[in-house]
Design a protein that fits this description.
Blueprint (H helix, E strand, L loop, with lengths): L8 H13 L1 H9 L10 E6 L4 E6 L2 E2 L1 H12 L4 E6 L8 E4 H17 L7 E5 L4 H13 L2 E4 L6 H10 L4 E5 L2 E3 L2 E3 L1 H9 L7 E5 L12 E3 H6 L10 E2 L3 E7 L7 E6 H16 L6 E4 L6 H13 L3 E5 L10 H9 L3 E4 L1 H8 L4 H4 L8 E5 L5 H11 L6 E4 L33 E4 L5 E2 L3 E7 L9 E2 L3 H8 L11 E5 L5 E6 L3 E4 L2 E4 H9 L4 E11 L3 E10 L7 H14 L8 E4 L13 H8 L15 H9 L2
Parallel strand pairs: 4-17, 6-7, 6-8, 7-14, 8-11, 11-12, 16-17, 16-18, 18-19, 19-20, 30-31
Antiparallel strand pairs: 1-2, 3-13, 4-5, 9-10, 14-15, 15-24, 21-22, 21-23, 23-25, 25-26, 27-28, 29-30
Bound molecules: 5'-O-(acetylsulfamoyl)adenosine.
The site of 5'-O-(acetylsulfamoyl)adenosine (7RM) has 21 residues, from helix 10, strand 19, strand 20 and strand 26.
């Protein structure tokens, strides 16, 4: 397994060269280090025009044998999962590989005895407890396709996802702890199920002990588990059989069920985990994401377990019981690699730095960032106060659709550059395109695209291959189009500048909203901003800027004039927003991404057409924006 790792710049350069000159041979070498029931007979078949991508064709594999069984021989007593509960007074749990294997097999048998079989879709609506990771793996064990729905989503969002994939089984819990709040998961699931006809059984884990209503289809987890043993041979899967569906929001309302498959996903998540974080045997690795997101799938569960790592799962939130919980947990478990999101860093940065400094963070070796561009201020705060300027920071760019990290530095191996994700991983052919789809050379700015498939690219959108083609392969034929813009320095380092599907045409000029936001954010009193277009009699479209200022006292005409001047100076007078609205927050998804679709509706005055806003992190700011517009 350690042959996956490039531990020096020379080894990295060599891998990169091989991966670009003999891409298939490169991935064959990596893939050979996993356990296959039968080796593949063709490495890659693809056509981005169709589009179709298949890796390791004819290979037979089960990802759980690679994440569990093979470690039983080499390190049965090694901790696989450390569980840190929401309440710091509740004891942490350490689950060894041996125990995890046994519990996964038991749950797999429980799913089977409740009717699940290979190819069935199973919806998981659960809190961040070990049983969630165990159920994910149990599905994979029996070849059932898991669809994890983040436990912060509403009944309507859950029902839509269950129905889209015709799930036959639901696994949920009575409730979930998150900070001072208790989420009534079973109540929400019951509500959702009144709109779903395909669910035959709902298995309910007892977590909070709260009272719940009981229906004919409900089964208690602990009772069902008593009926089964832990002997469950792994289902032999084809490389290209679906492993899971994970929904991601699209620019239209309906979520896209991205489909990932067994072989390629396994190979790429393990390879990227090993190399990006430079994990060493015995290290404690912590990714603060929720398993409801792709980051949790790839870099809490599958990637780390595939390489035999110890992965920490945290049930709570960074602010509970106090704003130093992250640092307290790092010190308590002697975390070596810490991977979080810029939105969390920015939130914690507002509190006295003593909250960081009072904890012993000397175990930290590597810091990671994911989910959105990391601004310079947050990058340096993270570097200075958390990493004490001795931990490399990996700024990892990737998507639900890419399955794994595509652009990043490798911790301590390749150079970092603040606010830059830096270089494409070996085997990843990133390019910059202009609006017409011509490749741009050298130092430049443009639309990010990927030229050649990598093993963990999503294969389709569940039930809608046409949409998969339209969204990712039609704008620039022959390329995978992720929807992000980027700039590239003379050394080939990429800085992701933001989404490019938010282009507004003002008086015939194409304006990316991301560079305008960057200009607004340069103002010392601006914390964050979002710019959207609205229709305008004369210009066709005009710009509406939503701006969060450092202090409400800064809200006056002077700052608005300064902001207009700043945009005019940085981009040009044409980019000056017609409207600048000071707000206390921006509507965000639970993973911290600004919901521009909602801001566009607000800017257009279409207050009644916002759709379901209950899945937002902060639905209350929408009300505030409405009141003040
Ligand atoms: C992993 C994840 C994907 C979108 C992507 C970008 C943005 C993610 C970075 C980033 C700048 C980064 N999956 N994004 N990572 N932007 N730098 N390091 O977040 O499907 O939920 O979102 O997130 O816009 O297209 S995701």
């Amino acid at each position: 397994m350690n042959n996956l790792a490039h531990q020096s710049l020379a080894a990295y350069d060599e891998a990169k060269q091989q991966a670009s000159e003999q891409t298939e041979a490169f991935w064959e070498t990596i893939a050979s280090q996993f356990e296959w029931h039968q080796k593949w007979d063709k490495t890659l078949e693809y056509d981005f025009h169709k589009p179709e991508v298949k890796w390791f064709l004819g290979g037979k594999v089960n990802i759980t044998e690679n994440c569990l069984d093979r470690h039983l021989i080499t390190q049965p007593d090694q901790t696989a999962i450390i569980f840190e509960p929401n309440d710091p007074k509740e004891a942490a749990q350490h689950i060894s590989y041996k125990e995890l294997h046994s519990r996964v097999c038991q749950v797999a048998n429980m799913l089977k005895s409740n009717g699940a079989k290979k190819g069935d879709r199973i919806c998981l609506y659960m809190p961040m407890v070990p049983e969630l990771a165990i159920t994910v793996l149990a599905c994979a064990r029996i070849g059932a396709i898991h669809s994890v729905v983040f436990a912060g989503f509403s009944a309507a969002a859950l029902a839509a996802r269950i129905n889209d994939a015709d799930c036959s089984l639901l696994v949920t819990a009575d409730g979930g702890f998150r900070g001072a709040k208790v989420t009534p998961l079973k109540d929400i699931a019951d509500d959702a199920l009144t709109h779903c006809s395909t669910i035959k059984t709902s298995i309910v884990l007892k977590r909070t002990g709260q009272e719940v209503a009981w229906n004919d289809i409900d089964v208690w987890w602990h009772e069902a588990l008593e009926e089964v043993d832990d002997n469950c041979p792994a289902e032999i899967m084809d490389s290209e059989d679906p492993l899971f569906i994970l929904y991601t929001s699209g620019s239209t309302g309906k979520p896209k069920g991205m489909v990932h498959t067994c072989g390629g996903y396994m190979v790429y998540t393990a390879y990227s985990f090993q190399n990006v974080f430079q994990y060493k045997k015995g290290d404690i690795y912590w990714c603060t994401a929720d398993i409801g997101w792709i980051t949790g799938h790839s870099y809490i569960v599958y990637g780390p377990l595939a390489v035999g790592a110890t992965t920490l799962m945290f049930e709570g939130v960074p602010s509970y019981p106090t704003y130093d919980r992250f640092w307290e947990v790092c010190a308590k478990h002697k975390v070596n690699q810490f991977y979080t999101a810029p939105t969390a860093i920015r939130a914690l940065q507002k509190y006295p730095v003593n909250l960081v400094n009072k904890h012993d963070l000397s175990s930290l070796k590597v810091l990671g960032s994911v989910g959105e561009p990391i601004n310079a201020e947050a990058w340096h705060w993270y570097d200075d106060h958390v990493g004490k300027n001795k931990c490399p920071i990996v700024d990892t760019w990737w998507q639900t659709e890419t399955g794994g990290i595509l652009i990043t530095s490798l911790a301590g191996v390749t150079s970092q550059k603040p606010t830059y994700a830096t270089l494409p991983m070996p085997g990843i052919q990133a390019v910059l395109l202009d609006q017409e789809g011509n490749e741009l050379a050298g130092e430049n700015e443009g639309i990010l695209a990927i030229k050649h498939p990598w093993p963990s690219i999503a294969r389709t959108i569940w039930g809608d291959h046409e949409r998969y083609k339209n969204v990712y392969f039609s704008a620039y034929p022959g390329y995978y189009f992720p929807g992000d813009g980027a700039l590239r320095d003379a050394k080939g380092n990429y800085r992701i500048t933001g989404r490019v599907d938010d282009v507004v045409i003002v008086s015939g000029h194409n304006l990316g909203t991301a560079p305008i936001e960057n200009a607004l954010n340069e103002h010392p009193n601006v914390v964050e901003s979002a710019v959207v277009g609205f229709s305008h009699d004369v210009k066709g479209n005009a710009l509406h800027a939503f701006v969060i200022v450092r202090s409400r006292a800064d809200e006056n005409e002077t700052i608005k004039n300064e902001l207009r001047a700043l945009v005019a100076k940085t981009i040009g007078p044409i980019a000056k927003p017609d409207r600048i609205q000071v707000v206390s927050g921006l509507p965000k998804t639970r993973s911290g991404k600004i919901m521009r679709r909602i801001l566009r509706k607000l800017a257009a005055g279409e207050h009644d057409q916002l759709g379901d806003i209950s899945t937002l992190l902060n639905p209350e700011v929408v009300e505030e924006i409405k009141r003040n517009s």
